[in-house]
């Protein structure tokens, strides 16, 4: 071993991680998943890049000049906002994320604090490089040189941001409440930019509407705002450079700024060990339990209902999972879905200016997303309890009853949300000019309300069936990355879709036959009765599915779950 | 109460438990000991229904754990070495959940008494994340005892407990045995096993290599002169030279 020990540790870790990943390709499930993951990345990223590259001029990034300038301004502002908010609204996260092994081996070893910081910075850069590569593939550079420029530019930005945020955290830990000067400076810089935008608001709106990006650029590069934004512009210019020459011209300033950040971090003499050790415990918990380990249950939340000690045991499991959902759900979780809902609503309500029309579409989007995506997102069922399977299997409950108990809590919550959204949509559509006449609208509502629970349950049964049948495919750690993990996710999604199709076909057939018979008899196409029957068919299928999964669960060997790699 | 007959558990080519048979009668406290990898955990997991035996049968109170699992498990309590608690349920909610799962009558009074006995009353509304490991162990025990199980299985019950916790745990196990429970204690702490167990079963490489009281084992292992020390008996019985591998089983 001739390399310095921490570099040796880093290189060995990378090499062995790669070896493990290659070696496990001998197992068919990893090989299939990896091939699927590779195909996915090829079609989504690389394939697009190379297909799109044909016939282009070999430009660095295939962006029209106007767009390039716009992206550069947006990028500059983005980096600026991150940098200022790091001081004004600091994260409680410790600066350096050491692993538990790092803490046990390195913190107790005769290694200087500065070397430990350098080691951790080096490790954290590796993730940044991977992120840069993905961004490069997504941005579809027109040539190999263009790809390198984008990759190098993004990598330098990520490295600088990483160093900067580390420096801010260390500096805050060092100065505590006395870190008012940098905070005041950051606040002042933000104020200057906000004031510039406010003063020139009308000009900016006009320039934006007319596509006069040069006017916006002039504002961002002149006056006080120009001075404040200068270092951030130096970074944003790198990946957007129009040529190799432009990149090389922009590079020295960015590298000097990067080096200054590095020197700043290393010169910060602050004890980070305690906070890092705490963080390492948290990271270890996330590795073993998944991201839910981050969610802190709220003790104050009340139980959904009083649980009598005598009665069907399924109810106890529903009660448990409802408590789990209530205690772990927070407004911050719900707010994550708002942009998605608004985006869908905006796309689907184009041209509708009246409020009720927009609300109708918004409600329908919520209902649709709840039914389609809800069962995937709401994992408060067997997927959550796979870790606890050893305990659940000691309970005196039939497997099928256990499965039903686990599935019903998310099913109830999702059905209630979807139903409320459907009712709101129906009510809001009363005054909508495009709405159907009243009887049809209420018929459609009843039909949708009849089918929604069955669709939700069918998907939940499919998801939980997969978790029980192929526990090693169901990852508890949603942060787990890699090509094979992507492939596994795709396989699970495909399997669930297939199961849903298989479940829907009989229900649709029942509905079609009944609708056809009624049409032959009465000469009209009914909605409610076929929908109710289709919904009932889905519920029956879900019940049968739970019996099958329950039987599999009773026969399953816990060692299969123990062997799961999460 | 606990009847294990020709239990075999294989994982692919590996035989973890091999033709293992023993009984535990009501009031007996049986120590299940063996070296690392001997098959103790696999045996316990088969006994409580976490794993299915590859061959052989396990019956709890006359109910087969495979063909009649619900009734068999109703009589069981399994206290694992690592207490598992649901992170989002408070201590008292764990007891409510357990009461409903096992259909415990008069659960409120029993839960209150157990919380008092295990000094958990003040922690009744606390989430597991706020409890020490010892406290979590106590909660798991309270859940296990709530339905007055006829058969109790403890896997390394003293792991992570402080001296007071160790004493309490010892008292709890002995009290359950005296109350007529059939108890199995799996542990590497041979002094605990020697102190509280009425009988000891030694397993090595998946096979039963000894079964009896300390005195019987000492006599069978020709170690009576050594003073009936379980540690010495264990080391001799599980010796890798193979000379004494069948001591105490009555098998050739």
Uncertain segments of chain B of ≥5 residues (pLDDT<50)?
241-252
Q: In angstroms, what separates the terminal alpha carbons of chain B?
A: 28 Å
How many helices of chain B? The count is: 9
The dominant shape of chain A is globular
Question: On the 0-100 scale, what is the average pLDDT of chain B?
Answer: 86
Q: Most extensive interface: pair and counts?
A: A-B, 34 and 38 residues
The level of helicity of chain A is over 70%
**Spatial strand arrangement across the major sheet of chain B:** 6-7-8-3-9-10
Strand residue percentage of chain B: 15-25%
Structural class of chain B, by secondary structure, is alpha/beta
Order of helices and strands of chain A: HHHHHHHHHHHHHHHHHHHHHHHH
Could you describe the largest sheet of chain A, including whether it forms a barrel? Answer: none
Q: Rough shape of chain B?
A: globular
Largest sheet of chain B: 6 strands, mixed
Q: Would you identify the regions of chain A where 5 or more consecutive residues have pLDDT less than 50?
A: 53-59, 561-566
């Amino acid at each position: 071993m001739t390399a310095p020990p921490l570099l040796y540790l880093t290189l060995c870790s990378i090499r062995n991680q790669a070896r493990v990943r290659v070696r496990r390709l001998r197992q068919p499930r990893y090989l299939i998943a990896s091939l699927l993951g590779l195909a996915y990345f090829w079609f989504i990223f690389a394939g697009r890049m190379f297909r799109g590259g044909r016939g282009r001029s070999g430009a660095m990034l295939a962006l029209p000049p106007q767009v390039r300038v716009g992206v550069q301004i947006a990028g500059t502002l983005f980096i600026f906002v991150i940098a200022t908010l790091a001081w004004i609204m600091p994260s409680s996260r410790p600066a350096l994320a050491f692993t538990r092994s790092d803490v046990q081996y390195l913190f107790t070893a005769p290694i200087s604090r500065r070397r430990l910081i350098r080691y951790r910075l080096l490790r954290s850069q590796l993730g940044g490089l991977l992120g840069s590569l993905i961004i490069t593939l997504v941005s579809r550079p027109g040539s190999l040189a263009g790809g390198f420029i984008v990759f190098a530019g993004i990598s330098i930005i990520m490295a600088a941001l990483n160093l900067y945020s580390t420096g801010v955290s260390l500096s805050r830990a060092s100065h505590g409440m006395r870190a008012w000067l940098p905070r005041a400076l950051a606040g002042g810089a933000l104020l200057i930019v906000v004031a510039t935008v406010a003063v020139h608001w009308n000009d900016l709106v006009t320039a934006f509407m007319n596509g006069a990006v040069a006017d916006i650029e002039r504002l961002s590069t002149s006056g006080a705002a120009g001075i404040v934004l200068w270092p951030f512009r130096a970074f944003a210019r790198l990946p957007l450079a129009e040529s190799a020459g432009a990149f090389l011209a922009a590079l020295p300033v960015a590298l000097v700024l990067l080096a200054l950040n590095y020197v700043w971090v290393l010169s910060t003499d602050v004890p980070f060990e305690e906070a890092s050790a705490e963080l390492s415990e948290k990271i270890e918990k996330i590795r073993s339990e998944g991201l839910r380990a981050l969610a802190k249950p709220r003790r104050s939340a009340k139980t959904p209902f009083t649980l009598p000690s005598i009665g069907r045991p399924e109810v106890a499991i529903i009660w448990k999972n409802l408590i789990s959902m209530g205690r772990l759900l927070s407004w911050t979780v719900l707010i994550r879905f708002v942009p998605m809902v608004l985006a869908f609503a905006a796309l689907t309500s184009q041209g509708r200016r009246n409020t009720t029309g927009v609300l109708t579409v918004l409600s329908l989007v919520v209902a649709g997303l709840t039914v389609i995506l809800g069962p995937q997102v709401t994992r408060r069922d067997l997927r959550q309890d796979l870790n606890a399977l050893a305990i659940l299997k000691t309970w005196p409950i039939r497997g099928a009853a256990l499965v039903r108990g686990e599935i019903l809590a998310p099913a109830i919550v999702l059905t209630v949300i979807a139903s409320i959204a459907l009712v709101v949509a129906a009510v809001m559509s009363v005054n909508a000019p495009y709405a159907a006449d009243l009887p049809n609208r209420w018929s459609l509502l009843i039909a949708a309300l009849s089918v929604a629970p069955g669709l939700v349950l069918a998907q939940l049964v499919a998801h939980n069936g997969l978790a029980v049948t192929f526990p090693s495919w169901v990852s508890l750690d949603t942060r787990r990355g890699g090509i094979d993990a992507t492939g596994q996710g795709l396989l699970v999604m495909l399997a669930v879709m297939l199961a849903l199709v298989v479940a829907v076909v009989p229900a649709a057939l029942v509905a079609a036959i009944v609708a056809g018979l009624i049409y032959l008899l009465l000469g009209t196409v009914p909605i409610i009765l076929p929908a109710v029957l289709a919904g009932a068919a889905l519920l029956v299928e879900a019940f049968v599915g739970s019996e099958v999964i329950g039987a599999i669960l009773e026969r399953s060997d816990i060692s299969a779950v123990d062997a799961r790699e999460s | 109460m606990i009847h294990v007959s020709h239990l075999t558990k294989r994982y692919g080519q590996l035989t973890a438990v091999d033709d293992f048979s023993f009984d535990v009668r009501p009031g007996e406290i049986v120590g299940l000991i063996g070296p690392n990898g001997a098959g103790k955990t696999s045996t316990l997991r088969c006994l409580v229904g976490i794993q299915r035996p590859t061959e052989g049968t396990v019956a709890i109170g006359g109910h087969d754990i495979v063909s009649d699992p619900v009734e068999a498990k109703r009589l069981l309590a399994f206290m694992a070495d690592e207490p598992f608690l649901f992170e989002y349920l408070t201590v008292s909610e764990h007891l409510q959940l357990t009461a409903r799962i096992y259909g415990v009558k008069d659960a409120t009074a029993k839960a209150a008494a157990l919380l008092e006995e295990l000094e958990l009353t003040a922690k009744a509304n606390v989430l597991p994340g706020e409890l020490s490991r010892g406290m979590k162990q106590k909660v798991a025990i309270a859940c296990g005892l709530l339905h007055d199980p006829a058969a109790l299985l403890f896997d390394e019950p003293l792991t992570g407990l402080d001296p007071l916790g160790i004493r309490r745990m010892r008292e709890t196990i002995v009290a359950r045995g005296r109350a007529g429970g059939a108890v199995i204690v799996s542990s590497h702490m041979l002094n605990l096993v020697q102190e509280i167990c009425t009988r000891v079963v030694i397993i090595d490489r998946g096979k039963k290599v000894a079964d009896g009281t300390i005195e019987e084992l000492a006599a069978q292992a020709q170690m009576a002169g050594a003073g009936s020390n379980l540690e010495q008996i264990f080391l001799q019985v599980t010796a890798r030279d193979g000379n004494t591998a069948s001591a105490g089983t009555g098998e050739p």
